[in-house]
Records
---
Amino acid sequence: MKLNSLKPRIFLSFFSLIIVLGVSIAMLGAYILKKDIIEKAQQEVKNNLQTARSVYDNQISAMRQAFELICDTADLSQFQQKIGLDYMYQVSLDQKQRVISPIVLRAFEGKAIGGTRIIETQELIQINQELADKSKINILPTSKAIATDRKILEQAMTIEYALPLQDKAGKVIKVIYGGKIINRDFALVDNIRDLVFQNKVYEGKSVGTVTIFQDDVRIATNVLTDKNQRAVGTRISEVVYNEVLKKGGTWVDRAFVVNAWYLTAYEPIRDIDNRIIGVLYVGVLEKPFVDTERAIVLAFFTIICAAGVLAAILALILTAAITKPMTMILRATSKIASGDLQHRVKTNSPLKELRELADAFNIMSSKLDEREKSLIVSNNKLEVLNRNYLDLVGFVSHELKGILSSIVLNAYNLRKEFLGPMNEAQKKALVSMSRNLDYLSATVKNFLNLSRIEKDEIMLKKTMANLKEQIFDVSIESFLQLAQEKNMTIDAQINPNIVINMDVGLIQIVANNLLSNAIKYGAQGGIIRITTQVKSSMVEVEVYNDGRPIASIDTDKLFKKFSRLIYAGMEKVKGTGIGLFITQKIIEQHGGEIWVEPKNAGNSFKFTIKTE
C-alpha cells in the first residue's frame, strides 16, 4: 500500500483515529479500574489493621477482666492455668526492689495496668527454662532487610497485666501480675487472621496474613515460606523498618512478604513508656486483585479490538466512496496547477457533497481563467508603475542630495561666521533653517535607502569593525548637539571589545536612526542609554530613552513603511515613517532582529546582530 496516494492516507487516517481513540479509552478504563481496585484494597487493608489492633488490645482487656476476679486468697497457679497465662506471680512491697517489669512497678503506684514489654533472657530463665527455650528464635536471612550480625533472638515479647492489692488504708501491699509470651504464639495471630479475613484461601495461599514482630524479627506469624512453614525468624524490609520502627509511622503499601506480593499495613507496637518495641502487620494477598484486574482489562480490550475491526471495515468502505471522485478532482487540480485553466471535472458520484464539490471546482476553474487573463494585464501595468516610482524616488533623492549638500555646507559656513559676522536675528533664522535642512537631508538619505531596498540593490560589504569606536561613537558625535539642545544626557555603556563582521555603512544608518529617534521623541532633560550584551554568537544592543511609553497595540506599527505614531505633545516632531522600516531591513540582512520594549518611563529599542 503506497502511503503517497489519497486512498491509503484517508483509510489510515480513519483507522489511526479509531486506534488512538480505542487505545485511549482502553488505557483510561484500565487506569480507572486499577485505581479503583487498588485504592479500595488499600483502604480495606487499613481497616483490617485497625481491626487487628483491636483484637490485639482485647488481649489486655481480657486479662483485666480475669484479674478483677482474683481475691487475696486465690490459688494463682490454678488461676494461671484457667486463663491460659504463661506465668503468674505475686510480689509483696518488700520485694519491690527486685522487680524488673516496668508494668509491675507502675502497678505499685496504686493503679492496675496492662501492656506489652520485652522480657530479657535472664528473667525468662528465672520464670521457666522451658519457656525460655521455646521463646528463642533463629534469625533467618531475608531479602530487602537491613544487614545484621544477629543470629538468635533470645528475648521475648509478652502481653502482661498487673493488679495492685491494697490494705484497708488504701496502701499497696502487693501486686499480682501475669503474662502471655507472644513468641511462637500462633494461636494469637491465627485468631486475629480468622476474625479479620475469615481464613480465606486463594490458589493455596491464605488471602490474609497477620504477623507480630519483635523489633524487626517475626516472632508470631501465619505467613508461610516456600516449604509451607511459618516464616518465624524472617525480618521486616528496610523501607518498612525505617518508616515504622525508626520514625514511628504507619506504612501502607504493596510489599514483597517472604515469597509473594501483598497489600500490607504496618504500625508500631509500643510499651507503656511509649518506646517502640515491635510491629503489628496485616497483609492481603495482591494476586486476587491483580487477576481480577487483568480479566476485566482483557475483556475490555477484546471489546475495543472487535469495535476497531468493525470500524476499520466501515472506514474502508467510506474511503472507497470518497477517493474515487476525489482522485478525479486531484488530477484536475494538477492540470489547473500546470496552467490548463480550461480543464473541467465530470463526476457521477452518489454523494451530494462530492457532486457539489465538482460543480464548485468547475466554476472556480472558469473564474480562475478569467482572473488569470485580467491579472496578466494588471501586473504588466503595475510593473511599469512601480519601476517608474522607484526610478523617480531614486532620481529625485539623488538630485536633492547633491543640492542639499551644497546648501548645508553654506549654512554651516554662515553659522560659523566664516563669511562674516551676523546679528542675533540672522543667527536664529539660520539655526531654524539648518534644522530644516538636517531633517530634509535625513529624509533624502532615507528615501535613497528605501529605493535601494525596494529594488533589492543593497549588497552587504562586510568587514570586521569595532561596534563602539566605528559605529556608535560616530553617531553620538553627530547628534550630540541636538541632544544638548534638549538638555538630554547620552550614557553610552558599550563594551569597547565588541568586534562584528558587518557592513559599516549600513549599521551606521541603524545607529543614526535609533539615536535620532531617541532624541526626537525623548523627554526634555531625559537620558538616552546605550548598552550591549554578548549572547553566544549574537550581540544585543539596547537604545533606551526617557519619554512616553509606546502603547502595546502600537508596537507592531513602528516598523511598517510610512507608519508614524504621534502622541499628544509630539505633533511638531517631523518624520517620514521610513527610518525604522529601513533599520529593520538592514538588521534582518545581517541575520538579526529588532523590536521595541515599552518601559515605565520610556522605551527601549533592541536589536541583535551576529558577531561573525
---
Amino acid sequence: MKQRIVNFTRLFVALTLASVFYFMWFYHTLNLTFSVRSFVYVVLVSLLISSLAQITKHILWRISLAVLVGIISLYQLINYSYIKFFKTLAPHGLAKSGDADTYLATIKEFYPSIPLSIYLATFLFLVTGVFIIFVFTKQEPTQASFCGQEIEKKKNNLRIVQSFVSIIICVLVTSGGVFTTRYYNDNPREGWWEHNYFVSDYGVYGNIFIGINELFKENVSEIKIAQAVEKDINNTNIPKEEGGEVQKEITEETASLETPFDYLNTYYRALRHDDGFYTQKRDVPDLETRPNIIIYQLESVGLWAVNHEPSPMPYFKELIKGNVHVGRFFANACHTIDAEYATLCSALPDTKSPIPDIGSDNDYDCLPAVLRDDFGYNTAVFHANTPKFWNRDTLDPKWGFDNMFFLPHYPEFKYDDLRVIEDAVNYVASSTDPVIAQVIGVTSHTPHNKENLEYVAKISDLEPTFFTADIEESILEYSTLKEGEIKDYFSYLMMVDNAIKELFKGLQQNNLIDNTVVVISNDHRLYGFTQENQINNFYGYNELPFMMYVPGMESITMKDIATHMDIAPTILNIIQGDSYEKPEHFVGHSLFSEDHPNYAVSVCHDQINFVTPNHVIVGNSEHAKYLRLHAKENMSQREVDTIGRTLQTLVDMNGGMIRQNNIHKVD
C-alpha cells in the first residue's frame, strides 16, 4: 500500500510539473500570464488523471489513459488557435455532434498558423505524459509462494478497495473543479471584462471544467430565471431618481403581457433613454416594382480599416459616403452565423451559444421566408464553404432559402468573393421573379498571411495584390497585431474591395442597377485589438462598415447607431412602403422609422456590451456584473447596475426563448 501511495504521488507531481512547464511556454507565446487560478486547474486535472490511473493497472486501461492525454493535447492546440485569433477559449458547443463539421473545419483552417514551437512543446508534453503514466502504473509482481490462494484473494480485495477509492477521488476532484469554476464565476478578479483575464484565469484545463459545469448545471428554464429577475427588479429598492423610470415602465407593461415576445420586448424598450440624438422619420423610397435584394455580408472587415489612410478599400469607402449609411454600426454577436441570424431574422443571438448549437431544430419566420411566401420572391444563398459549417444546411432552409450554393458548387474553400458575387448577379439576372440573394463573404477570413493570399488568388484565377503603404501609428498603438500582420490583412481587404466594385459593375451590365437594393455589412470585428478603458478604443475596435444602396436615394445618414437586427425590418419597410408594419417577432427597427432606438446590444461568450452615443457599459451574464467602461456624462454605479439588471433579464429571457423555440411567431 505504501508503495502505491508513493507511485501515486510521483505520478501526480510529474504530471503537474509537465503541465506547468508546458503552459508557461503556451501562455508566453500568446503574451498572456499563467495565473494562480490556471495553476489550480492544472493541479486538479493532474490529480484527476492520477486518480484514474489507480482504478486498474490493466494494459488496456493504461492505453486508454494514453489516448486521453492525446485528446487533451489536441484540445490544447485547438484552444491555442482560438486564443490566438478569437482571444477566447474554444466554445464547447462546437464539439456537439450536430456541429462536428464546424469543429473539424476550424481545426483544418487554423493549424498552419500555430507556431512550430507549440507543436513541438505539445508533442513533448504528450510523450512525457504517456511515459509518466506507464512508468508509475506498472503491475506489481505477484508473489504467492505461501498460502497462495489466500494471498491472491487479499490482493484482489485490495485492488477492489483501491479502485473504489480512486473512483471516489475522481468524483471529488471533478466536483472540486466544478465548484472552483462556480467560485471564480461568482468572484471574478478586477478586469474581468477583458478576454485576456478570462483566458489567463481559466486556461485550457479550466475550460474543461467549464464544460463539465455546463453539463451538470441545474436544468432550469431561462424563462423562469428571467421571471425571477423580473420580480427582483420590481421589488428591489431602486432609487427613484436613478432607476425609477426603468422600474415604472417595466411594472406598467408587464401587467398586459400576452406572449413571451411581449415580455422580451418590454425589457428591450426599457433600455431606451434620452441620448440627445434626434432623428426624424425618413420617407420610404417609392419603387415602381418589387426590387431585387442583395445582402453581401463581409468577413472580419473593421470600419477602422476602411477609413485608414491610404485605404485598402477606397471604392467601398466612397460607396459608404455616397449612399444610405448610419453614424455607427455594431454587430449583435461575435460569430458569423449569428450575424446572419440577426440580419435575416431581426433577433438577438444568445450570449452563451451560437445559434446552431441551440436553435437548429427551431421554427423560424425570417425575412427570406416572408418575402418568398408573401411577395413571391426567389430566395438564394451563396457561400464558398461547406453547407455543414455552422449547420447552414439545416438553418438556411428554415430561414427561407430555397436555393443554396455552397461547396462543391464552388471548387474550394475561400474561393474569392468576386467569383461568388459574379455567380449571384448572374442568378438574379436569370430569374423571372424578384430575388433576395445573400452572399456570405469568406475571402478575408483569418488567418491572414501572404501564403494563404496567394493560394486564394490561385484557386480563383486571380493575381494577388499586396498592401505596401505604411500603417497609421494610431492603429498600431491599440492593436495587438504587428505592422506586417496588418498589411497582410489589408491585402485581403483589397481583394474584397475589388469584389464590391465588380458587384455594382455587374448590376450595371445586367440592367439591374435601377431595381436592386444592395446592403453591405460586416459580420463581426477583427479580433486582435485591446479594448482598454477608453471609449475611442472601444468604438475603433467594434465599429463595422454598413451601407445600403437604394435606387433613387442619395447619400444620407439614417440613424446614429444601428445593428444587424435593423436590416430585415428596413428591407421589409422598403418593399411594403407606407403600409409597413413591423412584425411582432422582429426585435430590430426599420431605419426609416421614427421610433428607432439609438443604442446597440451585443453579446459574445457571456460578455454583453450596451453601447449608446454617450456611454458604453460592459457586463458578463455568467456572474451578472456590469460596469461603465466609459461615459461622456456622469453616471453612478447604481445607474449602471439598473441598466445591468435590465440587460441581464433581457439576455436570460432571450436565451430561454431560443432554447424553447419561442423566439419567432410561426403560424
---
Amino acid sequence: MSNDQKIKLFASGRLCLFGEHSDWAGQARAMNSEVEPGRAIVTGIEQGIYAEAYRSERFCVIDKVSGIGENSFSCEMSREKLKEAAKAGGYYSYVCGVASYMCEWYRVGGITVEIYDQDLPVQSGLSSSAAVCVLVARAFNQLYDLHLNTEGIMNIAYWGEQRTPSRCGRLDQACAYGVAPVAMIFDGHDVEVERIPVREPLYYVFADLMAGKDTVKILADLNRGYPFASNEMEEREHEALGKDNLDITARAMEYISSGEAEKLGALMTEAQTLFDEKVAPMCPQELTSPVLHETLRDPRIKELTYGGKGVGSQGDGTVQFLAKDEAAQQRLYDYLTNEKGMTSYKLTLKPNSAVKKAIIPVAGFGTRLYPATRGVKKEFCPVVDKDGLLKPVILILLEELAEAGIEEVCFIINPEERRFYEDFFRKPLALEHYESLTEEMKQYEDRFRKMAESVRFVMQTEQKGFGHAVYQAREFAGDGPVMLLLDDTIYRSSTDTPCTKQLMQAFDTYGKPIVAVHEVPLSDVSNYGIFAGAWEDQERTVLSLDRIAEKPTSQYAEDYLGVGGLRDNGSKAYLAAFGAYILTKEIFSELAAMCRENEDSRSKDEVELTAALEHVMKSSGMLAFIPDGESYDMGNVRAYRRTFEDFGKADA
C-alpha cells in the first residue's frame, strides 16, 4: 500500500445478548478446572466510530467529534513511550495500548487516525473503548499489510486495552465481527468464536436507563467468588455463570439460527430471572436494579416485546428488548425515547439474503478450443456425467445449480446467438424424437424442460472484458447476492452437498462476497487468478482475503501469495479461482463505476472482474472458500481431455 493512501474505517459497539460476566468467570478455569467454561452471545451494533487513516512518522489520533478529552494526541512510534501513555490512563490510553502492542510484535511505522464521526455513546456498556481499539488495530493491519484475520484483530484490541488501567472483558472485542451474532467460548486463557447464522429478522431496542451504576463495585463483588467458591452464595454464582449459562446460551444459539423469536424473547426473561436469583445477591447494592426491573415490568413495553433483560455488567445501566416485529420496534423506541426519557437505539439482526440467482457468461468464442468452436460453443461440448449420460457442459452446470437450490439462471449471450439459445432452451424436442427415447431418457427430457423454465437471457453487445460481461446482468441480480459460474468449469463434490451449495452455505454464515478457490502447484500459478489472506475458521476452509493477483509469476506468488497452515508439513499453498463466486451489490457498484470510466474515456482497456473484487476486498472485505470437491476445466484442449476422461468416473 502506498504511503500516502487513505483508508476509511468503521468499528461498531457491541451488545451482549446472553452470557454477561461469563468471560472473566470462564477465565478462572486456568486456576480451577472445576469452573465451567464461559459462553456469551454477542453482536456488534449499528452505531460505531468512523475514521480515515494513513501512514505517518508518528502515532497520531485526531478526534473531531467526541468532545471528550483533547482533540488530538501524538506520540513517537516508540513501544516504551506508547506503553507509558497507555498505563497513564485517560481518553487516549486505549489506542496507545494497541499501538504499543503493534510496536512490540510487528514491524510497523506510525499511522494517523482521523475520527470524523461517531454515533456510539461512551460509558454506556456498549464498549466504545473496544470499538476504538478494534478500529486502530484494523488501521495498522490494512496500512501495513499484516494479513491479520478477524480473530487476530480482536485479540490485539484486547491485549492493547489490557495495557491500560481500565481492564476490559474478553467479550468486548466481539465488535470486530460486525453487526452479526457470535458465540464466544472462554476456557481459561483460550477464546473461541463461532458465528451464528440468523434465520429470521430480530428486532431489538436497547436503552440507557439514565440511572447510573458502579461497574467497578459490581465486578469487585462478583469476583470474590472466583476462582474458588467458599460459601453457598458463591456456589450459586458459579452455577449461574457456569452450567446454567451454558444451557441458556445453547438454546439462544438454537433459537437465533432457527428463527424462533418468541422463544428467544422468553429466554431473555428467563436469563434475567436466573441472574437476579443467583448472581445479584453477590452485590445487592448495585444489582437490585430498581429502574431496570421497573422498566422490564412496564405493561406497555410487554405488549410490544417477547422479552427483555439487562446488559453487560447488569445493574441500572442499559436494558435490551426483543420487539415482536418492525412496527413494534419503532413504537417501543418512540416510547422509551419520548415518554421515558431514555437514550434509545434500534438494532435489527438480519439474515444474510439467500442466494437464489446465478449468472453464467457465455458470449465468448472459445479460442483455445478452436477449430471445434467453429461448429459448437465450448459450453455445449459433451462430457460423460456421473450418471453415465453424455451431456453438454451447460446442462451439467444447470443440474448443479438446481440441486443447490438456485431458482433463476441468467446466461449472458452474444445477440447473434440468441436464436440458438432460445431454440435450445425454449423449443420442445420434436415429437418423433421424443417418442424414440427410452422411458429413462424421456424422464430426463422432462427434467430438462423443467430446468429450462428457470433460464433467462441478457445480451452483451460489446466485448469489453469479463467484468463488463458480468455487469450486463446487473438488473437481473438486483440488490441481492448472486452466484457467478464460468461456462467452462464443472464441479465434482466429495460429499453429498454440491460444491456450489457449500459456497452458498459459507456465504450464509459470513455474509460477505466470496470466491471458491482450490490449491494449484506453484508452477501453474501464472495460469490463474491467485488469492491470499488469513484463515477465518479453525477448519481452514475460509480466508479473509488481503491480496488478489491475476496470473502472477511464480516468483511473485512465492514471495507474496503463499498461504500457510493448509497442510501439516508447514509448506505454503497457492489458491486459485475454483470457478464459482458469490457477488454482492458492492461489486456491481464498483463494476458500474469502472464501466462508466471506461466509456467516458473511450478506453480500449477491458473491464476486469478481478479489479472490482480487489477494490471491494480493500474497502469492505471479501472471503475465499475451499469447497470439499474438485473443479474440472474445459478451457483448453489438455484440460478438456482430462475432464472428458475423468469427470464421469465413479472413483474420480
---
Amino acid sequence: MKKDFLTDALKKHFGFDTFKGNQEAVIRNVLDGKDTFVLMPTGGGKSLCYQLPSLLLPGTAVVISPLIALMKNQVDAMRNFSEDNGVAHFINSSLNRAAIDAVKDDIKQGKTKLLYVAPESLTKEENIEFLRQVPVSFYAIDEAHCISEWGHDFRPEYRRIRPIINEISRHPLIALTATATPKVQHDIQKNLGMMDAIVYKSSFNRANLYYEVRQKDQNVDKEIVKFIKGNPGKSGIIYCLSRKKVEDFTEILKANGINALAYHAGMDSQVRSENQDKFLMEEAEVIVATIAFGMGIDKPDVRYVIHYDIPKSLEGYYQETGRAGRDGGEGKCIVFYVHKDLQKLEKFMQGKPISEQEIGKQLLEETKAYAETAVCRRKVLLHYFGEEYTEDNCGNCDNCLNPKMQVEAKELLISVLETVEILKDKFKADHVINILQGKKTSEIISYEHDELEMFGTGKDEDEKTWNTVIRQAMIAGFLDKDIENYGLLKLTPAGRKYLKNPESFKITKDNDFEEEESTDETPVRGGASCAVDPVLYSMMKDLRKKLSKKLEVPPYVIFQDPSLEAMATTYPVTIEELQNIPGVGSGKAKRYGSEFVELIKRHVAENEIERPEDLRVRTVANKSKLKVYIVQSIDRKVALDDIALTKGLEFNELLDEIEAIVYAGTKINIDYFLNEVMDEDHIENNYLYFKESETDGLEEAIKELGNQYTEEEIRLVRIKFLSEMAN
C-alpha cells in the first residue's frame, strides 16, 4: 500500500497528519497479515496500531483487553472518530442480555470494525460459537504482559487466549504492551505461539519524566501535602497499595483543602466511574488510587505521579509513572521508600504457590535495587527493560542532580566475576555474596562451596557493597541474569574479556535508607537524629521523665519518641495544634499536653524561632469512620473477632486500629473480651510486665513473654494497660 494512502487514512479517520515512532511500520505489518509484537511505552500511541488497520481491513478486529474501564474508554474514543456508534463495541460482564444481543446484531450487519472482549468473556462457549460465524480481520491482545507470570499484572485467563483463538478461527495476531522485560517478551511470544512475529520495540526513555526516591517516614503525609500545595492547579495521581490507605489519605488531603478523590476496585462501580470522569474533566486535581486506576486513561497533562508505597515490580512502577507528562511536558515521579514496605509485600505473597512466591521475591529484589541505587535512575530502569542508556548523567533524576562520589571497585569486581565463573553461572547473587563473605549457609555447605579458594575473601566488605558491585556490573554488561532461570548470575563475553584485561571500575555506593523499627508503636529512630531541634527534644524528654515519676507511669505512656520528634520539628504551641502530632489525639493532648505546649512556647520565644507553618498538616485519622465504628462496637461489648469479621479485617489488622486509638488518647475497655479469651492470672502477668518495663515495644515483650503467651494475647493486654494508664 502506498504511503499516501495510509497517511490519508490517518488524516481522514483520526485527524493526525503524521505517525508517531513505529506506528506506521507496525500498521503496514498488520495490513500485510503478519504476526506483530509491539513494545511501546505509555503515551506512545499503541491503540492506533490496531484501530487504524481495523478500519481498513474487511471484517471485525477482536481486541482482547483486561479492564472494563479501559474498554469503555477506547470504545467511546473510537465512536468520537466515526459517524456510526456501531463501529466499536465491547462484550463484558457489565452488559445485560439485551445489550449483548444488540452488539451481536451490529457485528452481523458488518457495522462493527472493532470488538473489545474481556478474556473471561472470550472463554464462554456461546461467545466462541458466535465469533466462529464472524469474519475476523485479526486479533489484538492489549496489555499482553498479563500473559506472563513475570509481568506485573499476571492473569491466568490470559494463558488460555491462544487455544481459544485456535478454536474460533486462525488469523494474524498483534500483541501490545507498554512494559516488558526481555523475559516477559519471550513469555508472551511463546505462549501466543508467535515466536516468528516481527517485533517493534520503541525506546523506553521518557526524557521529560523526573524520577526521585524519598525516605518514607512518619512525615510522609506532610511531605505529600506540601508537594501538592507547592504545585497548585496541576493534576496528579497518588498510588497506594491498600484500599484502606486510599480512603484514609483522600480524607487527609480533603481536610487540608486539596480537591482529591479516591479510586479503587472495592468502590461502587458508578462512583468509581464518576470519580475517574471528574479527574479527566479537571473537576478534581488529585486522584488517590490503587493500581486499579489508570490503564488506558489518556489524560495528557498529569504533572506528577506519587507512590505512597513502593510498588511490587518495576514494570508496575514504570507503567504507573508513565501516566505523567504524556504530552511531553513536565512529569514528576516520586516514590516513598522504606525497607519494611518490601517485607510487608513479601508477607502478602505467603500462601501463594512456591513458584509464584519465588517470582514475586525476584521482582521485589529489582524494585529494591532501583530504590536504593545511587546511579542514574533512568539508566537502571532502561537496563531492566533491556535497553542501554549511554549517557553518564541524565540531568533529570535525583541521583544525577545530586551525584555521589564514586569509589574504585576493580578488585571487588574481579572477585565477583571470578566467583560467578567458578560457579558456572548456576547461582544467584545472594549465594555469590555468601561465598565472598564466608557465610556457612546450609546451601554453601551442601555444595562444599566453603572449600572454594575465594570463600571468605570478601568478609571486610558488607553485603550492601557487594550488591552494589553486582548491580553495577550488570549495567556495565559484565554480568547478566539468566532469562529462563531468573536470578541466576551469568558471566557475559564482556565479563570474560574484563577478567583477562582488568581496568579501573568505579561504583557509586547505594543510598542509605535508615531502617524503621518493625512496629509502629516503637520509636522510629533512637536519639534526636530525626528531630529538627535536638535541644527542644532533649528538654521534652526531661519533662516527660519528670511527669512519668509524678504520675507513676512509664515515660512512653505519656508521649512516644516519634511524637516528641514531631513536636521538636513543627513546634505546636496550642492544644489544638498538638492534636495534629502523630500518636497524640485529643485525649492525650488534653491530659498531658499543657506543660509540653508551655515549654515549646517558651523555647520558640526565647530563641526567636520561626515556626514552619507549611509543615503542619491537618489529620483526620481520629475522625475516620472505621475508628468511630470500633470504639462504638467496643462500648457495646461486641466481640473483637466479630468486629474484624464485619469490617473484613484480619484480627491483627483490627489490633493495629485499636492500638492507634489508644495511643492517640482514647480510653476504651476491652475487659469483656479479654476475660473471655484469657485467664485472669495470665492477664495480670502480662499487665505487670508492661507496668515495670522501660518500653512498650512488641518485640521486647515477645522475647520476654512469648514462650508463655501468643503475640495476640500480649497485644490485647498491652491495649488494656495503655488505655487504663495513659488515657
